[in-house]
Amino acid sequence: QAVPAGSHVRLNLQTGEREARLPENEDGRSDTREERERKRLGKVDVDSNSFTSQELKKALAKMKESEKAERKVSSWLEKQRTAQGKKFRPIEQLKEEFEKLNVKMETDYEIMVKLISKFNSSASTLDEKVAALYDLEYYVHQV
Question: Which segments carry the region annotation Disordered (predicted)?
């Protein structure tokens, strides 16, 4: 269940229930909904049908600041996405580049197939089979 922002929430370990309590004022009372709304909005008269020009200017300035912050975040996210697009390449392209460098890149599947064939081979010694099982355990654990 949703609780109001600023509430104190705890898990009672004896009963297993979650408990919530509204924060208290200096005088020991919990805020009413109207008091919390007034605090959140500042010294704006929320009951009146009209606002002063100063109140409107302040509200507009806050909206513009939050809009600028949102634009900064969205542009940063876009930069991160394009940077990631440049960092990552398809596996086929990587294999070709490694082959040019005389480095053979194997996938986990290819390595596991080799280890299984080594384990099943009658030419392998007991130590080689045990080592193959340990290596297989590592690769299977990742999967």
Answer: 1-46
User: Cα(52)–Cα(43) distance, rounded to whole angstroms?
Assistant: 12
Query: Quick check: helix, strand or coil at residue 10?
Result: strand
The residue with greater pLDDT, 32 or 18, is 18
Higher local confidence (pLDDT), 69 or 137:
137
Number of alpha carbons in the 13 Å side-chain half-sphere of residue 96: 5
Residue ranges of the domains in the chain? 53-102, 104-142
DSSP the chain: ----TT-EEEE-TTT--EEEEPPB-TTSPBPPHHHHHHHHH-S--TTSS---HHHHHHHHHHHHHHHHHHHHHHHHHHHHHHHHHHH---HHHHHHHHHHTT-----HHHHHHHHHHHHH-TTS-HHHHHHHHHHHHHHHHH-
Is residue 118 within 8 Å of 129, Cβ to Cβ? Answer: yes
Please give the C-alpha separations between residue 13 and each of 20, 34, 44, in angstroms, as whole numbers. 14, 33, 42
